Structures are given as structure tokens and as C-alpha cells.
Amino acid sequence: HEDLTNEYFGSLHSWMCNCDRPSCHRCDLTFSCNCSHAQFIVVPMVTDDALTLDLSFNNIVMVTDDDLKGHARLRVLSLHANRLSEIHSSAFASLWSLEELDLSDNEIKIINHKWFRKLGALQRLNLLHNPYSLGPHPLFKSLVQLRRLSFGSDALEEIGRAHVSGIDQLEELRVHGDNLRRYEPGALADIWPLGHVYLSLHGPFLNNQSLASAMLGDVSYPETWVILENLHLATSQSLQPFREAAKKRIRYLSLHNVSISDQRVVEFLVVTDGVPLTFLKFDGVTLKGEGRWEKAYQTDHKALDEVYLRNVIVLDVYKFVSFLQLGFLLQYPRKVSVINAGVFVMPCATSYLLVNLQYLDLSDNLLTDLTLQETLCNGRGTLKDLRVLNISGNALKSLSTVSQLVTKLSKLTHLDISRNGYSWMPQSCPWPPTLRYLNISQAKLNTVTPCLPVTLQVLDLSNNNLNSFLLVLPALTELYLSGNKFLMLPLGWMFPNLQILNIQSNTLTMFSLSDLASYSRLKDLQAGQNKFDCNCDFVNFFQSDIQRRKVMHLSDGEDTYLCDSPLYLQGRAVGRVWLSIVDCHRVLFVSVSCGLALIVGVMVCILLWRLHAFWYLKMMWAWLKAKRGSQRRRRIRHETEPLLSFDAFISYSERDASWVENFLVPELEEPRNTNEGDMDSTPLQSLSLCLHKRDFLPGQWIVDNIISAIERSRRTVFILSENFLQSDWCRYELDFSHFQLFDGHTDRDAVILILLEPLSRDDIPKRFCKLRKLMGSTTYLEWPQDDDRRAEFWNNLRKALRTVEDET
């Protein structure tokens, strides 16, 4: 059969090699890969560095010999809840480091001992709930490090010595044998020491008490915790297996999911009479009957130290007499827990019977303020040795009533009154002076008052509606405030001895080094899951002081500290946020930017001033404005060409006006013939000149006058001198003339330059770029200082002016 199986796997593996195996990339930084609930039908490929691989809740039907190769570092493998039915004999051969293997809840029909040959490091093995039967070979002999073993199912019918041989000791053994039919006596007896054993033996306890007795006897030791599950103790015969456990002097017994009557309880007490049973637990019990316990009155259970009852349903509860007849039993336990049992009152008479009680847990019941008074006998001195009282999850509403009732409990140190309906806290409350631990979490408190005792060392006010805490508690070492509405950390000076502060899931936006410095002894802060504002101060403090300098230990993990604002950082861990200088120093950044912009602006302005850019812009604007005015005038006159009224427009500096008036104007407008005796000489023609002093229209913008004069003159004559170069209006006239040249309304030879004093192109400042350009491309006349050459000068000037006149 094995050869056929391996041949089947070989062909199957060959087929799978031709197919692409899926991959799983859901691995965290600790190399824990969670590939559960992913609908895989074959084992996916994961990184070879994986330490934990969870493949539970998929549809994997087989594991081949190559699926897990290369995973020598793997320590935990879970194939729980698949459809696994076939596993190659060498499937786990490469998993030398595997410590935990879970194959539960599958469809495995055959357990092959070869699976475990190479698993020498395996410590935990779970084979529960598979339809297999144990084979003839020792299954677990090679698992020398095995400490926890779980096997069995509804299909398991036999357990023999060979099946479990080789197992020397276990911390935990779980056997599911509800339908077990054959058990070889002593099969489990060699497992020693045995810490905890869980036996589910519903069928044997009902129908095969000898099998259940043999099995229970093999695992019952004074030091072993025996947990029996799924029992229906309806008859006297169903209690026979406990006799074997009683013979072994069993000390720890738990019954889970059990149905029992008061008569069977009496018989159980009789069976265990004199047995040093110290711990008795019933979890998930259905109790029938009327509460008749008389027959057990003479039994001896002085060793009973702790009784634990949880999830109890009492059928016909109103027929039950009481538990007073169990007074012989109630006087011994030091710890009693009755949890979620529908208890609405424990009579004061019952409380008086609990003379040795130090621990009482009545949580998740139906106690009210009124019935609690009956339970605690109105504070009349019962339960004098009680140190721990848990009445959480009831229907209590008055904190004042509770404090008054527990005041007489002179040894009380721990009080849990959480998950009740307290809506307010009185200003003062009496408490026992020994009280050190108080839990009022999950109530409806809005404020904290001096009602709280100053003797507290541990205080839990989680999940209330608190937004402030202004109470000095000098002895407090642990404070739990999670799930409230705090906007900031409480003032640390009020808790000089505080070492642990839990303020998770509030509305904290930030905290600082100064906040933490007020806590002189704080060692552990848990402040994650708040609405942190990731501003520069908080992020810098968190990353520098918390992460790098470790000024405070965050036991809840740095990844729980997430940004809530600004919106673009929402959900990101504070420790991994990066903020730019713009975010962190916005005022400084704006100030520096504005300063730099101002400096650059000033430098640009200086540069533009040096380059006379403002002048050009001003001139351009003026020229465009004047140009539009000139065009508008021409449209009114229906003229397409400018009206020429002058032969020349004279542009000169006011300081050169004497030369213009004394030399230029008389020579050109009032010419005299130098050869008066020569009858044949041609008289000189008079020219019309445009001078700004006499020809500019008063009241009109001077720029319009300049533009109009240039447009109405055939020529523009520039009288160049140092004075000209220093005159702004001369620059206007020069630039407007230059614009006219390129505008097409003036001939390019219509500009005449006259130098009154020697000027070279290089002597002219660079800001006179137009003039420098004209002197480089236009012939100019120089005013001679020698009188003999002046006649030639005037002839050349008239010739230039006549050239234009002739052309026109």
C-alpha cells in the first residue's frame, strides 16, 4: 500500500511540476507568514526564511515531498481545517527545526509514522478530528522533544500500548475518544510526568465504564490536572470511573460541558470522600434536581481549597431548596468562583458559612444593590478573611452603596466592580484601609472625585467617559485610563510613584518630553491608538526621544502610534513619518523666503536701474500712449500720412539753447548770402524749424508735443553735447525718434546728429543705447571751433536738409 501511495505521489508531483504553484507573500518582518483563508488548493510557495507558516482554512488536499523543501528554518506549521487527505511519507523530512505541527480538522485516514522520523525538535503535535485509526507501528517514538500531544476523533475506536509507546513525558495530553471501544490497560500509564490531561469520553462514561475507569486510572496522578469533557452523568454507573481516580489520590479535577443532577453530585462527593481533592471545577454544567444534599453531609473534603463554577444552568431553579445543606463543604474553600450562573443573591446565611474564604468571584451574574446588601450581610462583619472580591458584570448602580458594604471587609485588598451601571461618583466614599486594587472600568463615569481611596496602588478606569483626572493619589503605581476622552496626559505630579500608565484609545493629539518629565518614576507608557496630530514638534520628539534615546518604554509597540492628522499622513506610524522643513518651520521658511525674495527683488531692481530698464518701460508706455493719441488724430483728419509742417525738429538741451538761438535758428530760418557782391549767387532758402520753446502747444502733454513735432517734421536734428546726455527730455526725443524710424512713418535718413563738442561713440554712456547705435550707423556733423570751417558746416547741414526736401 505504501509503495502504491508513493507511486501515486510521484506521478502527482510530476503533474504539479508542470503547473505553476501559487505564491503567498503575506509575511511580516518576523518572517511569520499568514496564508490562511486564501482558497489555496495546493501548498503555496513562500520565502525560505519563513519561521511560521499558517495555511489553515484553505482547500489543500495533499502535501507532496517537494512542497516544503527548503524550509529548514520553519518552526511552526499549521494545516488546520483544510481538506487534507494525503501526505507523502517524506513531506516533512526537511523540517528539522519544526517545533509545532497542526494537522487537525482534516480528512486524514491513515497516520504514517514516517512523517515524524526527521522531526526531532517537534514539541507540539495536533492530530485531532481526523477520520483515522491508529496503525500498528509506534507513531511518536521519534519525537523525543514532544511535550504536547492531541489526537483522536469520533472515528477513533482503539488505543493500544504500541500506539503511544516511546512517549516519556508530556506537559499536555488531549484524547478525543467519545466513541472509543477498546483500550489496552496501561497504554497511557507510562507517560510520566504528565502535567494536564484532557479526556473526552462521552460514550465510555455512558456505556463502557470499565474502559473509562481503566483510562482515567492510567492518567490520574496527584500532580496531574485531569480535565474531563462532554460528560452526561445520569446514572450511578457513570460515576464508577471516578473511583479509580480517587484511588490515585487525585488533587485537581475539572469537568467541562457536563450534565449532572443533585443526586449524582452527592454520589460524587461520596466517591471522593477523604480524597485530597484541592481543586474542583465545573465549566458549562447543567444541574437538575431540587438541591437535596443530605446524604453527603458526613463526607470529608477538608482538603478542598478552590471551587470554580462557570456557565451554570440550574433547571427548575425555583424547586431548589438552597445550598445551606452544603455548609460542611463551604467551610473549607479559600477560593470560590460562581461566574455566569444566574445568581441574583447569595443569602447572608451562606456567606456566614464561608469562614475561610479569601477569594470570591461572583462576576457576570444578576446582583443588584439590594441583593448585594443581603450577600454581604449589610456589612455586619462576615467574610472577615476576604482579600479579593469580584462582582463585575452585574446590575449594580450605586458606587456609594458598594463602598459602604465593603468597608467592614478589613482585609480586602482587591475589588473589581467593573462592567456595572455607575453613572456618577459621589464626593466622598468609605473604603477599607487595606484596599490596594480597584477596577471601575466599563462603567458610565463622567468625572473623578475624592471618592477614590488614597491607598490605591492600582486603579483601572478604562472605558468610561472621563476627560480629566484631577486627584492626588500618592501611592498609585499603575493607572489604566484607556477608552476615555482624554485630550492630554494627566498631570504627573499627582502620581509621584506611578510606574505604569495606560491611556490608549483616547483623543490624545500629542504629548511631549515635559509631560513625561512630570512623572518621576514612570517606566511604562501605553498611549497608542490615539488621534495624534503629526506636527513637527511631536514627530521630532517621538523619533528622537522615544525611538532613539528611549526616554520611555512603550510596551504597546511603536506601530500603534498612528497619525490622525494632517489628512495626507492619516494612518501612518508616527515613527516612520518624514516631515520637510516647509512643514516643520513654516514661519521661518516663509520669513527666509520672503527675505530672500526681497533681497533678490532689490538686486533685480538695482540691476534694472543700472540698465535703465525702468526708463525704457516708462518711455515705452509714454510712446504707446502718445502713439494711440496720434493715430486717433489722424483718423479724425482722414489722413494716411502725417502732415509735414516743419523742415526739422530740433532736439537740444536747455543749456545749449544759446547756441541754437544765436547760431542755428538765424542761420537756417534767416539766411544771409555771404557773397553779397556776387550777383550770380543763388539766395539761400529759409527753413522752418520746430523748437519746443515756441512751437509746443501750451496745455498739451509734453510727450504728445514731442511725438507730434517728430511726426510733423521732415527731419529730426539732435544737438549732441554733455548737456544733451544729461537731459531726460532729450532722451525722450531721441528714443521717440528711434521708434518712429522703425514704425515706418519716418525715413531712416531723417535723423541728423550734430556734435557741439567732441564726442566719440565710446564716450556716450551705455544707457544711451539708441544714440550709440545711431552714431555707429549714421553720419553726423561736428560743430567746428574754427570760424573758417563753419561755412562748410552750414552748407553740409543745408544740403542734408535739402536732400529730404528734394525727396519730398
UniProtKB/TrEMBL annotation:
Cysteines joined through disulfide linkages: 27-33, 348-377, 429-451
Pfam families tied to this protein: LRR_1, LRR_8, TIR
A Gene Ontology biological process term: inflammatory response
Location relative to the cell: Membrane
Domain TIR: 644-801
Annotated membrane topology: Single-pass type I membrane protein
SMART domains tied to this protein: LRR_TYP, TIR
Highest taxon listed in the record's lineage: Eukaryota
Primary location: membrane
Ligase keyword on record: no
Chain ranges passing through the membrane: 587-609
Keywords: Disulfide bond, Glycoprotein, Immunity, Inflammatory response, Innate immunity, Leucine-rich repeat, Membrane, Receptor, Repeat, Signal, Transmembrane, Transmembrane helix
GO cellular component: plasma membrane; receptor complex
Any one GO MF annotation of this record: triacyl lipopeptide binding
Family indicated by similarity: Belongs to the Toll-like receptor family.
Function: Cooperates with LY96 to mediate the innate immune response to bacterial lipoproteins and other microbial cell wall components. Cooperates with TLR1 or TLR6 to mediate the innate immune response to bacterial lipoproteins or lipopeptides. Acts via MYD88 and TRAF6, leading to NF-kappa-B activation, cytokine secretion and the inflammatory response.
Protein name: Toll-like receptor 2
Source organism: Sphaeramia orbicularis
Gene responsible for this protein: tlr2
